[in-house]
Amino acid sequence: MLERLKSIHYMFWASLIFMVFPILPVVTGWLSAWHLLIDILFVVAYLGILTTKSQRLSWLYWGLMLTYVVGNTAFVAVNYIWFFFYLSNLLIYHFRVRSLRSLHVWTFLLAQVLVVGQLMMFQSVETEAVAFELGILTFVDLMTLGLVRIRIVEDLKEAQAKQNAQINLLLAENERSRIGQDLHDSLGHTFAMLSVKTDLALQLFQMQAYPQVEKELKEIHQISKDSMNEVRTIVENLKSRTLVSELETVKKMLEIAGIEVEVDNQLDKASLTQDVESTAAMILLELATNIIKHARAEKAYLKLERTDQELVLTVRDDGKGFATVKGNELHTVRDRAAAFSGQVELVSLKDPTEVRVHLPYKERK
């Protein structure tokens, strides 16, 4: 038990200093001595909540604290209304309630209703005093509910960060698998062929069939050159993003994030130059990442099309959108588009949010 008491945060110990206010009237004789026993019971319940691991005991202690605050406020002195701060601190920092539907929150609010109702219906309390008490309770509630709201938002951000980390992990794993498959498909059979031809060349050399050895060595040399070119191609593909592969990646990212995706690809990507295709792919990825991190959307729509003069990317979602436009939104996307004299257009700020990117179109020669 002593170890549990030592584990209580100093903040909870410090708040016990306010118990001097109910104890002082007992010491001065304004209240009878039995009130001190009630005060001690309140402190025991308070420390009990902070140390117990039993759900039933925790609710028992919580009920005793509610009864103490309500009873003393209604029948002893209205100043006991300040003790709702004890309950508020427990809600926020001990129970760490993350929903306004929590039973602790509802009992906390019900206790306030009982106090105000009893004072107004059964006691002759002045209007100013009632207004003062309501002001105190309103302040306590706004503080409590505000901190609960902050905790809810923090939990959402933490969950979203974990989801983004999971998406990045899955994308990295898919990329590793793709690279491994490319290397296996392109180089696996090459090394097998080199091994066979090397063994054959050694056997022919031992047989002193030098013309055949020369022929095998030339073929080995050619295979080596071809495999080197294949490796260069793989490396170049890793450096540049293809629009088709990035579109699949973006679709998978959004689906993993729980966002329903509709893709309308009207583009003949084979006619794009590599630099335009790579830039369009990175812009598409950037816009999709923004939807996942900031939009809180449920649905997304991606459209790729061409006109006579330009490539047009349209990204739409049903998320929270932009509250205002200051001119520096989507600066990363704007910078990428500006490199090709392109434009970024905010067609709609919300309901739905729609971004359209225009890139000058160049035919692949």
In short:
The chain has twelve helices and five strands. The chain has helices spanning 2-6, 10-14, 20-28, 34-51, 55-75, 84-94, 103-122, 127-206, 210-239, 243-256, 274-295, 331-338, and strands at residues 260-265, 299-306, 310-317, 343-348, 353-360.
List descriptors.
365 residues; 12 helices
Verbal overview:
By secondary structure, the chain is an alpha+beta fold. Helix 11 (274-295) links the parallel strand 1 (260-265) and strand 2. The protein has helices at residues 2-6, 10-14, 20-28, 34-51, 55-75, 84-94, 103-122, 127-206, 210-239, 243-256, 274-295, 331-338, and strands at residues 260-265, 299-306, 310-317, 343-348, 353-360. The protein is elongated. The model has no long low-confidence stretch (mean pLDDT 82). A 5-stranded mixed beta sheet has the order 1-2-3-5-4, covered by helices on one side. The relative contact order is 0.05.
Strand tally: 5
Q: How many H/I helical runs?
A: 12
What value does the Rg take, in angstroms? 36 Å
What is the terminal separation in angstroms? 81 Å
Query: Shape from CA axes?
Result: elongated
Uncertain stretches of 5 or more adjacent residues:
none
Beta-strand percent range: 5-15%
Q: Report the structural category.
A: alpha+beta
Order of helices and strands: HHHHHHHHHHEHEEHEE
